[in-house]
Specification:
- The structure holds two protein chains of two kinds.
- Chain A is mostly helical.
- Chain A has a single domain, classed as ABC transporter involved in vitamin B12 uptake, BtuC.
- Helix content of chain A is 78%, strand content 1%.
- Chain A contains 16 helices and two strands.
- In chain A, α2 packs parallel to α7, α2 runs antiparallel to α10 and α3 packs antiparallel against α4.
- By secondary structure, chain B is mainly alpha-helical.
- Chain B has one domain: ABC transporter involved in vitamin B12 uptake, BtuC.
- Classes of the chains: A mainly alpha, B mainly alpha.
- At the A-B interface, α5, α12, α14 and α16 of A face α4, α9 and α12 of B.
């Protein structure tokens, strides 16, 4: 039986999040803060999209940055080369990335654990090579300028519109995650996370499930990447196909907690704000790499389940109610009991 | 059709490069065998060793080869510490995934610190014998490349002898093959695993010195190495040292040959194509046994 608090907490958080997104542009003191807000929201969408694969199936992908980059470049190329309207291009690019995610997923999801991570990193590195070298189409290292979707709009107004667009996208992504979380499909995915062999032997079509959720995740990631391209207006392969983007997504989702609907959003707000702050504070020095690395290391070592479960445990010290317990938790508990 | 000498030169260069790849891939394979850990930071340590070699040459005028006296024991110690202090403390059930993230974090820290200490400027060691070379059948071979290959070959041979002929090597291989059984016959698997990690990281120190001899280095260079290296260990079959060495030689040769018609950048894609092709045809790799299948 879910307790009252666990039923109302998500709803309350949803209202709070919606209110915060609606109110932020009016309270942001200047356009710079507002643009930072857009970036943080973009991270929130990316981290939530990542969490479709990472949270449900436990497959950790460091390559989702590449999918966002593909979405961005796809949108930009459809606008500049094919002359399509911006948002039609965004939709088409998302579909194209989703279609492309099918063969990628089929190759990557054949293997588990370590090999999957290797493939996901390889995806980023290979796309970086291709997009940097293929200058005639992508503009290479000189970058690719994306025309604005709303010409004549002033910059602060532009930020405001995109802030709401990202907010809406975040809402859709969260809703989708919530629906999957409650469905039979979601149960199958979580079974894969806990023990793929057992799940398969119990009749879960593991490969199909993994592939479907990977494609969904890729589509949301591409949407976020495309929307970013339309907002930012300038693409460079080094930033679009960076392993760093993927690692930010992992860090945010892990920090917040991958089993929780709002985990990635919370992580994105914390890490995203910190990243923006470092950018102002340290400027171009490579210290932001060090801080990202340290933070990721600390999270992995000390709270691999994220902040939300860690805080939750502080508040309610194991009441013994039935809640989602992973095989890892059970094993830890057993070991602890044996040690006593 | 490229001319004969050019082709021959590419083959020689490919084999020399393959030797270095083989040494580094052997280190990665060791980590994987011991703990099922994919060590993303391996190539970051490689670049760190290269930087230390460059720095000791730049600062004290030492030959880069001398820097190994310090870096190899240093890296061995760092490897032991890394395994005992960090990786062994992760939860066993999520170890594979979490260790990837942890070593990724270490790679970022190393890259950031290198950039901070030495700036992003490209560095290169200027050696007295740096431009020396000789001709074999019309192909020009630089002496430094030969030294680098010699280093790699020597280190690999030493590793082989260590693994096959010493008691420690037996213990290490037993730990890799079956940890519980190894413990039953009285092997202190925890300590052996730590030393195994140190050994793996020592290969990065030697490889880094070899790299510093004839390459331009910069902090983010490690991304160019980790991709090919990981492709190599997957193609070779995770956990198999001979498999990794064979894959390293073949892919290094292919890369070198493809550089003639395609140019340096596109030739690098051969690693990723090989990776995807392997996963599509034979996910456990071409030399991997039962170990590789599940990871």
């Amino acid at each position: 039986m879910p307790s009252v608090s666990s039923r109302w907490l998500p709803a309350g958080a949803a209202v709070l999040l919606a209110a915060a997104i609606l109110a932020f542009p009016s309270i942001a003191p200047n356009p710079f803060i507002l643009s930072s807000g857009v970036i943080v929201l973009n991270y929130a969408v990316l981290a939530t999209s990542w969490n479709f694969v990472g949270g449900f199936t436990g497959y950790i992908s460091l390559g989702h940055g590449a999918l966002a980059g593909l979405g961005g470049y796809g949108t930009a190329l459809l606008v500049t080369r094919a002359g399509l309207p911006s948002f039609v291009a965004l939709g088409l690019a998302t579909l194209a990335v989703a279609a492309l995610a099918v063969p990628i997923g089929m190759a990557a999801l054949r293997v588990r654990g370590a090999s999957f991570v290797i493939v996901s990193i390889a995806l980023v590195l290979i796309l970086l090579l291709v997009f940097q070298s293929w200058q005639s189409v992508t503009g290479g290292s000189r970058g690719l300028v994306v025309p604005r979707p709303f010409p004549g709009m002033l910059r602060p107004e532009h930020h405001r519109v995109f802030f709401f667009l990202f907010g809406a996208l975040l809402g859709v992504a969260l809703l989708t995650w919530w629906l999957i979380d409650r469905s039979r499909f979601g149960l199958g995915l979580k079974a894969i996370r806990e023990d793929e062999d057992k799940a398969e032997s119990l009749g879960t079509p593991t490969f199909t499930y993994k592939l479907v959720v990977f494609v969904v995740s890729a589509a949301f990631t591409a949407l976020a990447g495309g929307l970013y391209a339309l907002w930012f207006g300038d693409l460079d392969p080094v930033f679009q196909f960076s392993v760093l983007t993927g690692s930010y997504m992992v860090l945010m989702a892990l920090l917040g907690g991958v089993r929780n609907l709002y985990g990635p959003v919370l992580g994105a707000i914390v890490v995203g704000s910190a990243l923006e702050y470092f950018k102002v504070e340290f400027g171009g020095t490579p210290l932001h790499l060090v801080t990202t690395g340290l933070l990721l290391g600390l999270v992995v070592m000390f709270m691999p389940d994220g902040v939300i479960p860690a805080l939750g445990n502080l508040v309610r010290r194991d009441q013994g109610s039935i809640r989602e317990v992973s095989a890892a938790d059970l094993r830890d508990r057993r070991l602890r009991a044996e040690a006593k | 059709m490229p001319s004969g000498p050019l082709l021959f030169q590419s083959i020689v260069l490919g084999l020399l490069l393959g030797g270095l790849y083989a040494l580094l891939a052997a280190g990665l394979t060791l980590y994987f065998g011991i703990m099922r850990v994919v060590m993303i930071a391996h190539s970051a340590f490689l670049i760190l060793a290269a930087y230390l070699a460059w720095w000791s040459h730049d600062r004290f005028g030492l030959d880069p080869l001398v820097s190994m006296v310090v870096t190899v024991p240093l890296f061995f110690g760092a490897g032991v510490l890394l395994q005992r202090g960090l990786l062994a403390r992760l939860r066993p059930l999520t170890l594979t995934m979490m260790s990837v993230l942890l070593t990724f974090a270490i790679a970022l820290i190393i890259e950031g610190l290198l950039g901070y200490a030495f700036t992003g400027t490209q560095r290169r060691i200027r050696l007295g014998y740096g431009t020396a070379g000789f001709e074999v059948f019309g192909a020009r071979i630089a002496v430094v490349k030969l030294i680098a290959f010699g280093l790699a070959a020597l280190a690999l041979a030493a590793l082989y002898v260590l693994m096959k002929r010493t008691t420690f090597g037996w213990a290490l291989r037993a730990t890799i093959q079956h940890r519980d059984a190894a413990r039953l016959v009285g092997i202190d698997t925890e300590r052996v695993a730590g030393y195994g990690f140190g050994l793996g990281l020592a290969t990065a120190a030697i490889g880094g010195t070899a790299l510093a001899l004839d390459s331009t280095i910069y902090p983010s260079l490690h991304w160019h190495w980790i991709g090919p290296l990981m492709a190599i260990i997957v193609v070779g079959g995770l956990g198999s040292v001979p498999g990794a060495a064979a894959a390293a030689m073949v892919l290094g040769l292919l890369q070198s040959l493809l550089q003639i018609p395609m140019g340096a950048t596109w030739a690098q894609t051969v690693f990723y194509l090989a990776l995807f092709a392997t996963l599509a045809v034979r996910p456990q790799g071409f030399f991997g046994g039962r170990l590789a299948q599940r990871f």
